[in-house]
């Protein structure tokens, strides 16, 4: 393997960026064609290359690399190839770690200024590197603050900082106009999508299972109700809300839409990183609810993946 495209890590990276957008737009339109609402033009990434704020690599003979898709083979990624998808400070840290003899996985994460490393196992990394082994601090300070939000080493961090800011601003503008009585934030993570509303004084109930994320959310959303439970098992009636947000993993949120609508919220904002599972879940909307807008964002340049926001309204 010689390139990210050859390795299947970023299969579209060799295409001109406008062509990548066309292909990703078409993928969303194919997946969501039956929803009955035109898909809005995709919001492009401000960084067309070198956008990833985190990469997960594995140590092997010769340095750090990616597992090839569908294989246990390791491809030691050259720094110039990694620079096509990852931020410069991330590439610089990966280069520093290449000769440390790391065994197992390491995730390198950035907030645009600071870089931290999250190791699967203990490894002899330089003492001046901010690192953890899983959740446990190894050296320095492995906690990042991203646009004012605390993000612990194992808490979810969006891969594209610039596009995430655009998504957060888009969602928050909708919430500000909607003036919710209370927001239910399912799969809420550290509070990425609801922190601004909480800061304006809107009551928020955030549901998240991952332990470090719930701890972060408690600090990022002072006064909010934080429920430490699996959002996929959340049941109607556990809390009052009139507006809901959900941002599930790639597998989507099977069964959640039906439970969300039992108590008849007036607005649901569903942020998805997979158009296929989004289409599946939107297909379960009950009578009286409709998708009124579909807005894709190019969170993943170089790949076929797309982030899409579905706006769902009652009546």
What does this structure look like?
The N and C termini lie far apart (53 Å). A seven-stranded mixed beta sheet has the order 3-2-1-4-5-6-7, covered by helices on one side. The protein has a seven-stranded mixed beta sheet with strand order 12-11-10-13-14-16-15, with helices on both faces. Strands 8-9 form a two-stranded antiparallel sheet. A hairpin with a 6-residue loop joins strand 2 and strand 3. It has helices at residues 4-7, 17-31, 79-82, 88-97, 161-178, 195-199, 211-220, 256-260, 275-282; strands at 54-60, 63-67, 74-76, 105-110, 115-119, 131-133, 136-139, 144-146, 149-151, 183-186, 204-208, 225-228, 243-246, 267-272, 289-297, 307-314. It has 315 residues and is α/β, with parallel strands linked by helices. It is globular. The protein is built from nine helices and 16 strands. It has two domains: 17-47 and 160-314, Vaccinia Virus protein VP39 (Rossmann fold), CATH 3.40.50.150; 52-151, OB fold (Dihydrolipoamide Acetyltransferase, E2P), CATH 2.40.50.
N-to-C CA distance: 53 Å
From the structure provided, what is the oligomeric state, counting identical versus distinct chains?
Answer: single chain
Ranges where pLDDT stays below 50 over 5 or more residues in a row are none
CATH topology of the largest domain: Rossmann fold
Question: What count of domains describes the coordinates?
Answer: 2
Q: Characterize the main sheet.
A: 7 strands, mixed
- Assign an overall shape: globular
Highest-level CATH class of the largest domain:
Alpha Beta
Count of DSSP E strands? 16
Q: Which CATH architecture of the largest domain is right?
A: 3-Layer(aba) Sandwich
Global Rg: 20 Å
What is the mean pLDDT?
A: 95
Order of helices and strands: HHEEEHHEEEEEEHEHEHEEHEHEE
Summarize the amount of helix as a percent range. 25-40%
CATH superfamily of the largest domain: Vaccinia Virus protein VP39
Strand proportion: 25-35%
Number of DSSP helical runs: 9
The class by helix and strand makeup works out as alpha/beta
Strand order of the largest sheet: 3-2-1-4-5-6-7
């Amino acid at each position: 393997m010689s390139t990210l495209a050859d390795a299947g890590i970023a299969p579209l990276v060799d295409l001109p960026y406008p062509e990548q957008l066309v292909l990703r737009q078409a993928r969303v339109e194919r997946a969501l064609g039956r929803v009955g609402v035109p898909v809005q033009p995709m919001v492009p990434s401000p960084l067309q290359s070198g956008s990833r704020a985190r990469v997960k690599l594995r140590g092997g003979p010769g340095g750090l690399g990616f597992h090839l898709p569908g294989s246990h083979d390791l491809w030691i990624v050259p720094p110039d190839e990694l620079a096509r998808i990852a931020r410069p400070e991330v590439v610089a840290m990966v280069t520093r770690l290449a000769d440390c003899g790391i065994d197992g996985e390491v995730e390198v994460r950035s907030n645009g200024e600071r870089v931290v490393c999250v190791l699967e196992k203990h490894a002899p990394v330089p003492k001046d590197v901010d690192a953890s082994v899983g959740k446990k601090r190894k050296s320095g300070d492995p906690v990042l603050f991203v646009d004012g939000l605390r993000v612990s080493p194992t808490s979810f961090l969006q891969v594209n900082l610039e596009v995430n800011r655009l998504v957060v601003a888009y969602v928050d503008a909708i919430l500000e106009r909607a003036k919710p009585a209370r927001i239910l934030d399912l799969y809420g993570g550290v509070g990425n999508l609801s922190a601004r509303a909480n800061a304006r004084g809107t009551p928020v109930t955030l549901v998240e299972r991952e332990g470090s994320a719930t701890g972060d959310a408690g600090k990022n959303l002072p006064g909010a109700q934080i429920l430490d439970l699996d959002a996929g098992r959340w049941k109607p009636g556990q809390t009052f809300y009139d507006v809901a947000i959900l941002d599930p993993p790639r597998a989507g949120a099977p069964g959640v839409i039906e439970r969300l609508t039992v108590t008849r919220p007036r607005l649901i904002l569903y942020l998805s990183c997979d158009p296929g599972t989004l289409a599946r879940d939107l297909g379960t909307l009950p009578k009286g609810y409709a998708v009124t807008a579909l807005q894709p964002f190019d969170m993943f340049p170089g790949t076929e993946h797309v982030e899409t926001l579905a706006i769902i309204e009652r009546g």
